[in-house]
Amino acid sequence: MTPKARDLLQKQERSASVVGFEEAVVDFFVDAADLLGVPKSVAVLYGIVFASPQPLSFAEIQARGTLSKGSVSQGLRVLREMGAIKEVSAPADRSELFTPDLEMRRLIQRFLEQRLEKQLAAGKSRLGALQRALPDLEKSHAETLRSRLEQLQSWHEKARALLPIARTFLKLAPG
């Protein structure tokens, strides 16, 4: 685990093996978040919730990490919107408790909806701007750049065509 990620967790009064497991889980999600462009703080929060065998309250989550109350609140909101965590309630406790939502299909659907679709929509206008920004170059260089831009446009269209297929597959795939 990188020292930075370890610094985001509190040891509290928990056994070394419990803390070690939590650190390993958080490290796993921090690495995955880096790959997906998700903030490290969100990954830390998800790791804390994921590593707990029982649902955790906001206060318990905050106590296990070194993040500010505002960062925890914002991170939990992001995780709820992504469908990565769900709220559960205990009969004797009126506070919100959080547990990971382990249904991968929903996570992937939300990722497609929230990140990929927005990126592809923005990409279309960016490709238009690139087309307009092609510099005046000698013929052979201009043709090379036009060809590369056409390749980008082709990749973009193929990615857009995959979205409906991915959505359909996710609807058909078992939980």
Secondary-structure topology with pairs:
Elements: H1 3-6, H2 16-36, H3 40-51, E1 56-57, H4 58-64, H5 69-82, E2 85-90, E3 93-100, H6 104-132, H7 139-172
Antiparallel strand pairs: 1-3, 2-3
Helix pairs in contact: 2-3, 3-5, 6-7
Characterization of the model:
By secondary structure, the protein is mainly alpha-helical. The protein has helices at residues 3-6, 16-36, 40-51, 58-64, 69-82, 104-132, 139-172, and strands at residues 56-57, 85-90, 93-100. It is built from 7 helices and 3 strands, in the order αααβααββαα. It has a 3-stranded antiparallel sheet with strand order 1-3-2. β2 (85-90) and β3 form a beta hairpin. The longest helix has 34 residues, at 139-172. The mean pLDDT is 82.
Structure described in brief:
The chain has helices spanning 3-6, 16-36, 40-51, 58-64, 69-82, 104-132, 139-172, and strands at 56-57, 85-90, 93-100. By secondary structure, it is mostly helical. The protein is built from seven helices and three strands, in the order αααβααββαα.
Question: Which features does this protein show?
Answer:
3 strands; elongated; 175 residues
**Helix and strand sequence:** HHHEHHEEHH
Give the N-to-C terminal Cα separation: 31 Å
The main sheet comes to: 3 strands, antiparallel
- Rg measurement, Å: 22 Å
- Record field, number of beta strands: 3
Structural class: mainly alpha
Mean pLDDT across the residues is 82
